[in-house]
Amino acid sequence: MDDELLTTDELASRIKYDSRTIRERLKDSVLLEGVHYFRPFGGRKILYRWAAIQRDMCKGMTERQKRMSAIPMANGRTLHG
Predict the structure, then answer these.
(1) How far apart are CA 43 and CA 46, in angstroms?
(2) 0.85 cut: is pTM over it?
(3) pLDDT tens digits for 47-79?
(4) How would CATH label the architecture of 5-68?
């Protein structure tokens, strides 16, 4: 495995979030077990895969920017300007 593994505190300092936010919100809504993090040996400790988080964090920004630049129209379609 070439992927860099991070603890919650290491990830928090790298992405400039509070570790509590990662534990409570991001883990449940954005980060997926088996993709972004896993529990070694079925234990309680969580290790995060930096490459997957970095890839999806940047991908999410691009998709969000596309949605924000779209202008909703009356017929239900969107105008991309």
Answers:
(1) 8
(2) no
(3) 999 999 998 887 755 555 555 567 777 787 777
(4) Orthogonal Bundle (1.10)
